[in-house]
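REVIEWER CHECKLIST
Item 1: Sequence provided? yes
Item 2: Single chain? yes
Item 3: Sequence as submitted:
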Amino acid sequence: MHYLSSSLKSRALETIANIAITADNFQVAWNTLKARFENKRRLLTNHLSTLLGLSALSLESASDLQTLYDKINIAVSSLRKLNRSPEDLWNDFLVHLLTQKLDAATRKAWNLQTSNVDSPPAFADLKKFVTSRIRALKECSSTSSHKPASKSANSPHVNVATASVNSPSACPLCKARHYLNLCPEFVAKNPQQRQEIVKRFKRCFNCMSSNHSVRDCKSKYACRFCNQRHHSMLHVDAETSSDSTTITPSASQASQSSTPKVEVLLLFAAAQQSRSSQVFLATAWIRVKVSSDRAATVRALLDQGSQATFISGHLAQSLYATRIRMSISISAVGGTHVGKVRHAASIIIAPRDSDNPSLCTTAYILDSLTAYTPRCDADSSCLAHLSDLAWADTNPSSSDPIHILIGADIYNDIIQGGVRKGEAGQPIAQETIFGWVISGPLVSDANSPAGRSSVNITVLHCTSLRPLAEEVQRFWEVEEISHTRKLTPQDEQCESHFCDTHSRQSDGRYIVRLPFKRSPPPEIGRSRLTAERLFNSLSRRFRSNSELEKDYDEFMREYETLGHMRRAPSADRMHDPCVYIPHHPVIRETSLTTRLRVVFNASSLTSNGTSSNDHLLAGPKLQTDLPAIILQWRQFKFVYTADIAKMYRQILIDPQDLDYQRILWKGDPSEGPVDYQLLTVTYGMNCAPYLALRTIQCLADDEGHRFPRAVTILRKQTYVDDVLFGGDDIALVRESRDQLVALLRCGKFELRKWASNSPILLADIDSSDHGLVITKQIAIDDQLKVLGIAWNPSRDVFQFKVSLGSLTLQSKRAILSAIARLYDPLGWVTPVTVSAKIIMQQLWGVQIEWDDRIPDSLLYKRSMIYAKLSHLNDLQISRWTGVTADASHAELHGFADASTLAYAAAVYLKVTSATGQVTISLLAGKSKIAPISPLTVPRLELSAALLLARLINVVRNSLSIKSIPVTCWTDSTIVLAWLRSHPSRWKVFVENRVHEIQSNLPDADWRYVPTQDNPADCASRGLYGDELLAHFLWWHGPSWLEKNKRGVARRTSV
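Item 4: Structure as written out by the authors:
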């Protein structure tokens, strides 16, 4: 017995664990083990499951084939040892196969019925069991069924629902493994019929679970239409028909590209209505192909009301289409948010019997596009006037499903000139590249089956928005304190590529190569079809807007005249690889030089679902942080700003790469679109900023030894194509300007749009290229800001520009978008922006959808903030901080404070001149929202002190003042006590922060300041725009600071 026990492990050992180890118990233990593990029926089931569950080999491999052979051999040998004849094995196989297909409840009943028999059951017994089970279920169903509620045949009803994605059990309706609310049979029913199904299967009306009733349901969700405790798919509007169709978006997985997400607002609704007239929608049978050349012939619906094209998830899966990550918000008509579609695919569509003409587009993927199924035969007399035409859909009344919905993005390229009309009330035919599509009313008898057929009325509207995620990301990048960035391996690859491949012409102009991730670059895909389609769309836009066409022609004519593009050589017209870049206009009303700018979209997808930008290295971020440039610029008494004219376009692209920069543009009136090559670095390529700035750095390296003053300006005082520099002496500032002009001309760059706070510095510059009245916009991009910064040179002050426009801020999406467009890089209006950030956090805590109206309490706070935001238009901040070469003393003072809502820091520069005049300037402010998980106030105060330490470190490194003393102020005595001691004395949270503060500011003098004298206090609690305007404490610090007094401060050395 002891030997037997020592030979067992795991479940076998547990089986006899309670049997005493004695010689008498050996046979008892042995019989127990045989009963448990020698069950012939269980062994048979396991071996059959092994055989049927073997996976097919995907690759030719000796080791994988050997493993497969061994598994089969073991299973077959084990079956032989069970002494089962071939007839027995066939019986066993059928029983096993059928039981695995049974639903969980039926399989349980079968196992209970045969549990008292160890031998494998006979197939005949299983057949008898299934037959009796069917009879019993039918009888139960007939006694518990109810007659469906009567339907109204008038008003349509809209209902939209989203799908759950948890692991489902067997569906009670169709027995497949999915949730009931995802069952195709269930979805096809109207709400009343769904209610009956839920009742029949005794499901919870709220979450459709089988484990409880609605009164015990713990789900926090309710109907999104009426907020009652029932599932949205069971909602019935009392004022409308019960007939409705549910659209459920898919979130299926497939191969995905790295294309950035795009935010789209999609309004999608469907309804069914019983009526006496059938309406045909324009359908056609077309051929759809993907980059792998897999193709399918499917039925399409042409919908000019949609701004995008959609394909079904079934079609995408059948074609093995490469899925591109997208972010698409689905909303019902009226703005009710439903869900998201997360994928799209690049497709090519063509007539079903020809490859020409063909159109390339990006299609969004939905699980179900539309329930449009006429389900009635067309009366031949109503279509007699169209009988001689070649129909794109030979049976427009067919119930064949729609797998592609063609939107207005390519609709105009499909439609041709012919139209055929009949009498009033009869369908019309429109000529397309697929043939003639039939649409319009078809009258039928209201009492006939055809007349009572279900007509699906579909409304679809899709509007592309600026990606909200991109706006929010940029907002938080501005709000975050900058830090040193390390080069990634891809950054190092890009840098090495530039150093190895750039060159210069004899006149000094630079030539660069495109930094592809792989060399030679891979096949990017076919792109001319997309470029030609978008060019045709642009041409149609020109026909309705002659002013736009004039400005566009002027821009492109200048582009060609300056030698920045040329006609592609005819011999290379069909040369591979050629990548065509679509282009579109961007109107900038505030621009002083070019109102219209043409933007080239190198992120446009090609036939294989990738774009040029997907294959290019973006390169490291080279530009100096704008806050650091502004801080340095504020030290100069006399300043200049200027732009490097057409900076990107002064750098040539190597001829080897020109075919990756093709566009289509106008030729002679008799010609179609003509191929052009862009000869310079092109805005819209993700590598363009790197190539431009790296070339400027290279110019400073190559020629800087002759222009030492200009080198510093190019390296530290240039932001993209804007230069901001100055000094205390007019003569030296002018000398710096002349050196900068000369250095840039060595690389064929020119400066323009000069501005200065001194008329003397502009006197020798052409008056057409400067002005004292010009307001210089300061921004990180061209996007319209709710709140932006500008510099007025005539007054030498910074001003804020508030552009609320017609914002309707009543949803989470709208408010978040508006907050993300508050541009305050140095935190000068932190007390206002912190209030907006607090609302942003509170919105996350409210369980509402993106486009739902926010609660009235938050709506009031939002209204107060934005109503008074316009007061900031009157705000003026002096640019110059009073720093001069003869200043007797300069000090940095930082203040930190925290509330339960947020914590903040503010940094001031105190300058005392040789004559004793004191100037105090707010340099920077920052705030952060308190975490949702509550922290104690002392810990929040410590977080504020850490924020201040980081902010002072950035400010001090940006200033050119050497050995400037730093004094830090807080109104928390606990924080001062923590900072007075070694970090190791405290717990981890405090230890880490104290250590970083002491490391960043080892020479700082930390002091106590009363709360009423702490300017960071208002930044941690928030102010409205009108309150901030005249808030002396925020703009100048405590009054005793100017008088060179310490007030009641207590000193604490750290």
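Item 5: Key structural point noted by reviewer: The mean pLDDT is 78.
Item 6: Recommendation: ____
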